[in-house]
Amino acid sequence: MFPKQDLSYRPISLSNVLSRIISKVLANWLKKILPHIISMSQSAFLPDRLIIDNVLVVFETMHCINQRSKGKEGLMVIKLDMSKAFDQIEWSCLERIMEKLGFHDQWISLMMMCIKSVSYSMLLNGEPKGLIHSTRGIRRGDPISSNLFLLCGEGL
């Protein structure tokens, strides 16, 4: 009989030392300018901003909507589920957002090179097999990923 194995596969991307160094340098530079280009309504991943502020804003907004009793115009609240957003980010959208925010073309191509260099392979019987190239999403754990996620949020 074969031993029972866990069949829940999740893609992981291991990056080499050079790509981590480049990503960290770019992330440190980007971290300096983010507070100047990200709107005050975004509070995650930025120093001196607390994510709990968003909870207070939502509570006050809902209170205002519930207290409203007259008028022809209705109000609406949209809740976005960001739990799997890292894996769903379209690269072309991220590129257009960086263009709209005024990033230089060379900077954008450098960032996209860091993102598009992701590939996966599977271990079968202890040996890597196949090579799968990603077409969207950003790597979890990459130093620049949270900053790129903020840029995508700014596009919303």
Largest sheet: 2 strands, antiparallel
Q: What oligomeric state best describes the polypeptide chains here?
A: single chain
Indicate the overall shape.
Answer: elongated
Strand coverage percent: 5-15%
Helix content: 40-55%
What is the count of β-strands? 2
Radius of gyration: 20 Å
How far apart are the termini? 53 Å
The tally of helices reads: 6
Mean pLDDT: 77
Secondary structural class: mainly alpha
Order of SSEs, N→C? HHHHHEEH
Low-confidence stretches: none
Q: Strands across the major sheet, in which order?
A: 1-2
Provide a descriptive summary of the structure in words.
This protein has six helices and two strands. A hairpin with a 2-residue loop joins strand 1 and strand 2.
Entry summary:
The chain has helices at 17-37, 52-67, 85-88, 91-100, 105-116, 145-155; strands at residues 119-124, 127-133. The chain is mainly alpha-helical and 156 residues long.
Features:
single chain, 156 residues, mainly alpha, two-stranded antiparallel ribbon, 2 strands
